[in-house]
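Retro notes, structure queue

What went well: the backlog is down to a handful. What didn't: a couple of records were mislabeled last round, so from now on we paste the full input next to the output in the thread. Example, using MFS transporter from Kineosporia corallincola:
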Amino acid sequence: MSTFPAHSSPPTVDVVAELPWAGHALGSGSYRRIVVALLCAGVATFTALYSPQGVLPLVAGSMRVSEAQSALLVSAGTIGLAVGVLPWSWVADRVGRLPAMKAALVASTVFGLAWIVFPGFEGALVLRVLQGVALGGVPGLAITYLHDEVRPAEAAVAAGTYVSGTTLGGIAGRLVAGPIGQAWGWRWGVFTAWAVATVAAVAFAVIAPQARGFVRARGTSAADVARSALGHLRDAGMLVLYAQAFLLMGGLVAVYNFLGFRLEAAPFGMSAGVVSLLFLAYLSGTFCSRQAGILAMRFGRRPVITGMASLMAVGALLTLVNDLVSIVAGLVVLTGGFFGSHAIASGWVGARASRGRAQAAALYTLFYYLGSSVIGWGGGLVFESWAWAGIVLLVIGLALGAIALAVASAGWLREPAEAH
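Corresponding output:
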C-alpha cells in the first residue's frame, strides 16, 4: 500500500532535479554543439586579433613606421586582451559565461571596424587596445565554459578541440588579409578578415546551447575576484602553467611577426600575398592540439608539454636555413609544438582550479597575451639588431626555459588525478 496520500505523488521529479549537473557526454548532440560553437568563437576571436600580422610589412610601408612599430598593431590588441580577462571573469561570474562571451564578441566587432577605418596610426593603436579588451571575454571564459558544461573526464579532449578552432582563426585572419591587402591595400585586407570574424561570431551565438552547469555567483565583488586571483598567484603549480603560456606564446608571436619581413627581403623577395600562405602552418596546430589532449590522457600531461616545447626549439632551428622548404618545415613543427603545449597547459589550469576557475583561466589568458605583447614587440628589437638568427635564439631560449620549469615542478605540479 502506498505511503503517499491519494492527492500526492512520490517526489521522484524533485529528487532528479536536485542531482548535480554531471556535464554533457562525449558524442552527445549538446557536446557537439558546444565544441562547434567554441570552434566558431575561436575563429572569431583569433581572426580579429591576428589579421594585422599578415599585413605588417604593408602597414610599415603605408604608414611610414618601422618594423617594431608596425608590430604594435598586434601587441596593442593582445595587451588589451590581457588587461580585459580579469574584469570579464568578474562579469561572467555574475551574468554567466555564455552571455559574457556573446557581449564580448559584439563589442569586438564594433571596435574592430573602428580601428580599420581610423586614418592615424596612434588612434588605430588605441582602438586596437579597446578591441583587445573586448576580446578578453572569450579566451579566458571558453575553457571555463567547457569545464562547466562537459564531463570532467572528457574536458582535455574538448579543450584540445577548442584550441584547434583558435588555430583556424589564426589562419583565417592572416590568410585572408595578406593577399587582399597586397591587391587593394592593407585596410581592405583587414576589413575582409573582420567580415569573416563577424560571421563566425554570429554562428557562435546561434549554435551554443543554453548553459546548464553555470552557478551564478551572488554578491561577488571585485575584491572577491582579486582575492581569488591572488590565491592562484600564490600557487606555485599555477605559476608554472602561466609561465608556459608567457614564454611559448611570446616565442610563437615573435616568429610570425617578423618572418614576413625576412621573406620579403633578399634572397627570397616574396610578396605579402605569397608570404601569407605560410600561415597555413597553423593547420599543424589544429592537428597537434587535439592529439596532445589524447596523448595526455595516455601518458600524462607533463611529458606532452615538455615534448611539445622541444618541438618548438627544433622547428626554430630549421628556419635558420636559407631554403624555403626548410623554413616551411620548421614553421610547421614549431607551430604544432606550441599549440600542443598550449592545449595541455590551458586544460590543466581548469582541472587544477578547485575554486575560482574563471579567475584561474583568466590569469592563464593574461600571461598568454602578456607574452604575446611583450616578447612579440621585443622580438622586433632583437630582429633589428641581430636579424633572423636573433629571433631563433630567442625562441630556443624561451622553449628551454619552459621545459626546465615543467621538469623542475614535478614535486608540486601534479597530474589532476593525483592533485585532486
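Agreed that this is the format going forward. Reviewer comment attached to the example: Residues 25-414 form a domain with the Growth Hormone; Chain: A; fold (CATH 1.20.1250.20).
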